Amino acid sequence: MSTFKEKATAFLMSRIGKTAYVINTTAITDSLLQITLHLPEAINWRSCQHLKCEVGKQAYRDYTIASWDQATQTAVLLIHTSHEGTGSNWAKQLQPEQSFFYAGPGGGFHQPTAADNLVCIGDASAIGHFVSLYKCRHPQQQFHAMIIDKHLPSTILDMPIHTGTSEQLTNWVRHLPVQETTFYLAGNIPLLVKTRKTIKDLGGKQIKSAGFWE
Ligand SMILES: Cc1cc2nc3c(=O)[nH]c(=O)nc-3n(C[C@H](O)[C@H](O)[C@H](O)COP(=O)(O)OP(=O)(O)OC[C@H]3O[C@@H](n4cnc5c(N)ncnc54)[C@H](O)[C@@H]3O)c2cc1C
Questions:
Q1: Mutate to test the pocket of ligand 1, among 32, 76, 88, 90 (most ligand atoms within 8 A of CB)
Q2: The dihedral sign for the CA sequence 194, 197, 199, 201
Q3: Which is the closest atom of ligand 1 to the Cα of 79?
């Protein structure tokens, strides 16, 4: 049965929903999909904006625009699909030329700061969020992304990636200049809460968090 929130979102979607077309889908790994979309109108793109996508009957999930090409009005989403879920199953069945309803973009609250170092930490659902920060940073800023996952390529959409376990994370953060760093944490909420505490214990002060799921 639909919750009140889902019904309200469905009503809103019927008023403001737009149609996106899938150009192609690529499996970066067996649980990370790169979905390239054509959007019907130009957007004022900045880091960490998401689209609210209709993934089933009165079912909606948010996915971050990892990159945007203004000339062709194409957006790239990176969707983590390791689990059974309405959004994950929807993403896996998408095919070129398929269309779906979306609203947005919304969000965009996290932007690159002027700090010397930008450090991103999260699980694979946060890669799109981090790629968008990477693309909007100043080229002279140091940028590191640590993803708690086993099997990922060393770069995704040009962004260099470190991978590790949550146990290796503390040691990794310990070697960073935490005082001159802005940390961006995103994805799994318990991971984010634990990582925030680790960074604070090591003296980090600029921490921006975006919890996606638990
Ligand atoms: C602002 C915002 C931006 C987001 N951007 C992205 C994005 O760019 N890419 C992306 O993949 N997701 C993103 N998410 C998360 C996404 O919207 C969904 O919440 C998430 O993918 C789960 O949806 P689902 O229907 O597949 O699973 P659900 O039906 O919500 O959950 C089913 C089960 O799977 C577990 N689960 C959910 N997600 C994961 C996961 N990633 N890995 C392992 N287990 C999981 C849940 O704990 C639950 O037990 C974003 C969320 C927000 C709020």
A1: 88
A2: negative
A3: 11
Q: Helix or strand or coil: residue 210?
A: strand
Residues 174, 202 contacting (CB under 8 angstroms): yes
Q: pTM above 0.85?
A: yes
Q: Where are the beta strands (DSSP E) in the chain?
A: 18-29, 32-38, 49-56, 59-69, 74-80, 99-107, 117-122, 142-148, 155-156, 159-160, 162-164, 181-188, 206-213
Atom of ligand 1 nearest to the CA of 62: 17
**pLDDT tens, position by position, 163-199:** 998 888 888 888 888 889 999 999 999 999 999 999 9
Q: In the CATH scheme, what is the code of domain 4-107?
A: 2.40.30.10
Q: Whose C-alpha lies nearest to ligand 1, atom 35?
A: 83
CATH number of this structure's domain 117-213, picked from the four choices 3.40.50.80, 1.10.10.10, 3.20.20.190, 1.10.580.10? 3.40.50.80
pLDDT digits (tens, 9 = 90+) for 34-49: 999 999 999 999 999 9
